[in-house]
Amino acid sequence: MGWRVVHVTKVDQLSLQLDNLRVVQGDLDVKIPLRDIFALVIEDLSSKLTTRLMVELSRNNILVLLCNQHYLPECIIQPVSGHFGQHQQMMKQLKWTEEEKDEAWKNIIKQKIYNQMLVMRKSLVEKSRVEKLIALKESVVTGDQHNSEGQAARIYFNSFFADGYSRDNDDFIENAALNYGYAILHSAIARTIVAKGLIPGLGVHHIGTRNPNNLASDLIEPFRPIVDYFVIKNPPENYLTKDYRIKLINLLHARILIDQKSHTVIRAIEISINSLFEFFETGESNKLKLPSIEKFMLYES
């Protein structure tokens, strides 16, 4: 699997040269081996891309994100053919029972609330609020039927941002930063799901009829606090600068704990997806490996 995340803005052309991505910007001519690339984020609406390059990016399972004028990912390019055992993987996925899905969702939400609690603790939020999240984590039931996730979110976000803050209010610059970081994470998870031969639209909990990546919308939940923690510690100013956006993209290279070991977020995504399949194969909750930000280390370029 590739590891580099290539961010492109204000370039003339992207093309293929042998097995390399060729980036031309005026007199600058850079070549990057395709085998090294995990994702290509293109923010320049005027860049020219060759069809041959797009085919090879797809063939190499490289995540390609095309961003809109607000710099948010607007389009993701996925390969038509994926995992070598795709049919077998899909047939197994179609047999996942509702009871198993509810159990998986319970574990996903418990880990999300746990990571939110860690963000609060690392940010020195008052102890009483932290204790409320600990209690909510322990109260999560199968399928999260009592909506512990929503209750935790209200306490969590109100612990950091200004009075009147709402995740639905686009006037808050913090939401622009969070949405950008979440979009990068969501796309990376969706890309890995396709590469594993799973049906991305068939989720564990999310059932959005217009969401082609419901499963990614499930699996992103315990990863979201990675973005939250960065934005809380490094709040944006009036707008998202290029440098700030690159730092959000580079959260894919941050190191977190999963299965008691330190891994990059890119690798943690793969481990989580593999473990989800193992959970449904065995029915054993301890097979499900989800990320923890107990030990969190930013990528230093």
In brief:
The chain has ten helices and eleven strands. The chain has 301 residues and is an alpha/beta fold.
Explain how this protein is built.
The chain is α/β, with parallel strands linked by helices. It folds into two domains: 4-77, Ribosomal Protein L15, Chain: K, domain 2, CATH 3.100.10.20; 86-297, CRISPR-associated endonuclease Cas1, C-terminal domain (Four Helix Bundle (Hemerythrin (Met), subunit A), Up-down Bundle). Helix content is 44%, strand content 18%. The protein has helices at 51-59, 86-94, 98-122, 127-139, 148-158, 173-195, 214-219, 224-233, 242-249, 265-282; strands spanning 4-8, 13-17, 20-25, 28-33, 37-42, 48-49, 63-67, 73-77, 255-258, 261-264, 292-297. A four-stranded mixed sheet has the order 1-5-7-8, with helices on one face. Strands 4-3-2-6 form a four-stranded mixed sheet. A hairpin with a 2-residue loop joins strand 2 and strand 3 (20-25). The longest helix has 25 residues, at 98-122. The radius of gyration is 20 Å and the shape is globular. The model has no long low-confidence stretch (mean pLDDT 91).
Topology (elements, then pairings):
Blueprint: E1 4-8, E2 13-17, E3 20-25, E4 28-33, E5 37-42, E6 48-49, H1 51-59, E7 63-67, E8 73-77, H2 86-94, H3 98-122, H4 127-139, H5 148-158, H6 173-195, H7 214-219, H8 224-233, H9 242-249, E9 255-258, E10 261-264, H10 265-282, E11 292-297
Parallel strand pairs: 1-5, 2-6, 5-7
Antiparallel strand pairs: 2-3, 3-4, 7-8, 9-10, 9-11
Helix pairs in contact: 3-4, 3-5, 3-8, 4-5, 6-8, 6-10
